[in-house]
Write a structure and sequence with these properties.
It comes from Lysobacter panacisoli. Its main location: membrane. About 65% of the residues lie in helices and about 0% in strands. The chain contains 20 helices and four strands. Strands 1-2 form a two-stranded antiparallel ribbon. The chain has a two-stranded antiparallel sheet with strand order 3-4. Helix 3 packs antiparallel against helix 18, helix 9 packs across helix 10 and helix 10 packs antiparallel against helix 11. The longest helix has 30 residues.
Length: about 575
Amino acid sequence: MTETLLLLILAIALGWPLGLYLARVMRGDRSRMDALFGWIERPIYKALGTDPQRGMTWRGYAKAFAWSNLVVGLVVWVQFMTQAWLPLNPDDIPNMRWDTALHTMVSFLTNTNQQHYSGQAQLSYLSQMVGIVGLQVVTPMMGLAVVVATLRGLFGGRGDAKAAASRDGEDRDLGNYWADVTRATVRFMLPLCLVWSLLLTWQGVPSTLQAGPVAAPIDASAEMKEQKIPVGPVAPMVAAKQLGSNGGGWYGPNSAVPLENPTPLSNLIEMLGIVLIPIAITFMVGPLVGRKRLTAMVFGTMLLMSVASTGLSLWSEAHSSTTADIALMEGKEVRLGAESSALWSSITTQVNNGSVNAMHDSLAPITGGMAMVNMLINSIWGGIGCGLQQFLVYLLLSVFLAGLMTGRTPELFGRKIEAPEVRLLALLILLQPMVVLGFSAVTLAFPSITGNSNPGFHGISQVFYEYTSAFANNGSGFEGLGDATYWWNLSCAVVLALGRFPAMIVPLAVAGLLARKRVAPESAGTLHVETPTFALTLVAVIVILTVLQFKPALVLGPIAEHLTFYSAAAATP
């Protein structure tokens, strides 16, 4: 409990000033560091052939987002398939198989970092440093840029607000995509990654370009005569994986490996990195749009859901009757303990991070179930940009439903929410169960492609968790699943893309449509969203739209498994 409270206090204390700074960066305010950052940014704008002052409509912004992902994705895919012939490969790592390379590329391109490979054995230093870490730095900032453009659209776009309010039916300026991504990367993400990598190196996380040392096994009866210890520039990657809501580790077992997470302090630093920027983004909202009370509503709603989820996870893992089962300690680091494992599993799925310091396959059933619920909601804190983007979807739908229930015209910040916007939002909400449940059903129907190690209730959870994690752009998984196959690689690549790009572009389109409308003056009938009452309504809508529609899958998986453990514990004399 002490670790949980310390983590929350540090995240809020650091997230608040970072959020204020991030708002200034995304507004393009002048800074004393403009000379330094401008020296870095100007060549980038020149290479991209863009004028950072030139705005874009929502269509132009979405097109730039899509093209940047396509080009970067193709380059990285080719790199993974040719890494054996490229430099910085002292361990002679072979080329990746095309389907594994495709899944890996799509996974990191979508800011998911779902891994069907072990990084220390299947990726060269160059692939880790350029392909993996490059995407871990850039893709979160792409998501941040899109959500900032969406927020601008909800408030009429950039420029003169009064002039914009007087024009009806014209597309608005939502900002420049290339400038937003560049400024966020250069002025915010990279400096923060530098600080975090130094902290982790201080704690003993490897940071070298030399090949790993060779050691003789202590057990003389072991079948191998020597063991090669995999190292590399691990600390910079771990910094990017945690701060960028990425989660993909240098090593296959991720932060459960002592080299990647050597001390209790490194464990706290890495957990703080998971939640820091998502919390900072909630503090960015108010200053960015000029409504401080909006920050309070967003932060308060997310905090309420986070506390409820984390509390249930900690109880289930460390204090419930099922904790007596010794089988649940398999896959957990005894040096960290079950409670720290539960805390990490909770925040990593609340934030779409996906990194682990224990194998989620070994979590208590309710803890694993809460991890699934966190990913189904996908906006408790959420990934960088995409979490707030999903929160805005729930916000818009809650305003629409509240308007229907009270007989008021549904409108948000003075702009009416009408049929075209609701149809787009409904399509986005229906996409999740269609994709996750559809792929889970097909996979479970054919045992030859399932590859799960547990045919019972837990086997259902393994498959459902994998597709839920892919769609939520989280990346964590229940180990024991044979997922390095053509089916899993290709099906998950499709789910990864469907979970990322519609969720980013559709709210941007809705904001673009709303920005074109005239602003209605506030009246006695105006629905105020920045109130505790509406926040509770919003939480209820989130629970109804996500948790309840997946209740059958949760009952067949973690709930049934928990009851099995509970019955066994009750029957034990």
